Amino acid sequence: MADTVLFEFLHTEMVAELWAPDPDRGPRAQKIGLSILESMGFRVGQALGERLPQETLGFREELDVLKFLCKDLWVAVFHKQMDSLHTDHQGTYVLQDNSFPLLVPIASGLQYMEEAPKFLAFTCGLLCGALSTLGFQSLVTASVTALPACKFQVVIQKPRGPVPSLKEAL
Amino acid sequence: MAVCIAVIAKENYPLYIRSTPMENELKFHYMVHTSLDVVDEKISAMGKALVDQRELYLGLLYPTEDYKVYGFVTNSKVKLVMVVDSSNTALRDNEIRSMFRKLHNSYTDVMCNPFYNPGDRIQSRAFDNMVTSMMIQVC
After folding, report:
1. How close A95 gets to chain B, by Cα (Å)?
2. Is A168 within a domain?
3. Where is it located (chain A) (predicted)?
């Protein structure tokens, strides 16, 4: 359907607009552009994290949440599932997509390898936002080794410690 | 018909709380606050039990002499608490479930609204209208 193409065009325009060098602000503007893209993805991820699991019953543990991201979230946004999920069971997960739809248009040959990371910022924010709605603080980074395959590394932050109850504080 | 409806965030502060104005509202706020303990107990009990999947609808949390309190938790740990009048015996379990489902749908719509920042109080008129339709009509 036309939906996938609409999102791809919108995403391409967002990246182009936020990456355009601004003579006033200099090279820092591009980092700001990337963090704006990531925060947009974060807000969208928060909304999707609320809407998509609406019919499913509660998640039992972290791994279930990650599987939900790989299957339901990826299918809803990119119309395909994530290709593989690896974990070290200590809170770090590597999600690999062998043919990431936002990278496919620039994938023939190595010409655009350097441009690839900025196309992943929005998606990193998306994963981070969905995880935050589902109750996990996380750090998401992305890396590209061979276009159009890319890997997203998700590190779940452990909470700082139990919240002290009133009894202990007194 | 509910007497009081509350939406509590993951960090246990109220995002939205509304009760019928005929009686003193503080009593309902207090009831919702005490019901949070019961909700937490149910959530942790379900986590430990070896059931395949957790239910989102928590059922009757606790009854008092005049009112009954029902709870529902979403996947994002947002709790919906509803207080209904005990004298209204016509309300059955599946009616309460459908009320919670409507509340959940409205809450999801609020969350997807780009002008809403997650964590703020809910000020959406559509949500207000939906809650009004569920509460007792008081002249």
Report:
1. 22
2. no
3. Endoplasmic reticulum; Golgi apparatus, cis-Golgi network
pTM equals 0.84
A41 touches chain B (CB under 8 A): no
For residues A65 and A59, the answer to whether their CB atoms sit within 8 Å is: yes
Location of structure tokens 């009133």: A166
Nearest CA-CA distance, residue A6 and chain B, Å: 19
C-alpha distances out from residue A138 to A147, B51, B64, B77, B104, Å: 25, 27, 42, 17, 26
C-alpha B63/C-alpha B38 separation (Å) is 12
CATH number at residue A72: 3.30.1380.20
Report if residue A54 sits inside a domain.
Answer: yes
Question: Would you say B118 and B77 are in contact if contact means Cβ atoms under 8 Å apart?
Answer: no
List the structure tokens of A157: 């932050």
ipTM: 0.81
A-chain residues near B107 (CB < 8 A): 50
- By residue range, what is the domain housing residue B18? 2-134
- Which domain covers residue A97, as residue numbers? 4-156
**Structure confidence by residue, pLDDT tens digits, A49-103:** 888 887 777 777 888 888 888 888 888 888 888 888 888 888 889 999 888 888 8
Spell out the residues 6+ positions from residue B98 whose beta carbon is closer than 8 angstroms to its own.
none
B91 Cβ contact list (under 8 Å, min separation 6): B1, B84
Which CATH number characterizes residue B26's domain? 3.30.450.70
CB contact under 8 A, B53 and A58: yes
Q: Could you tell me if residue A161 is inside a domain?
A: no
Look at residue A25 and tell me if it is in a domain: yes
Of all residues in chain A, the one with the smallest CA distance to B48 is A60
The tally of domains found in chain B comes to: 1
B139 assigned to some structural domain? no
- Would you call A15 an interface residue with chain B, using a CB distance cutoff of 8 Å? no
- Domain tally for chain A? 1
- Residue B32 is assigned to a structural domain of this protein: yes
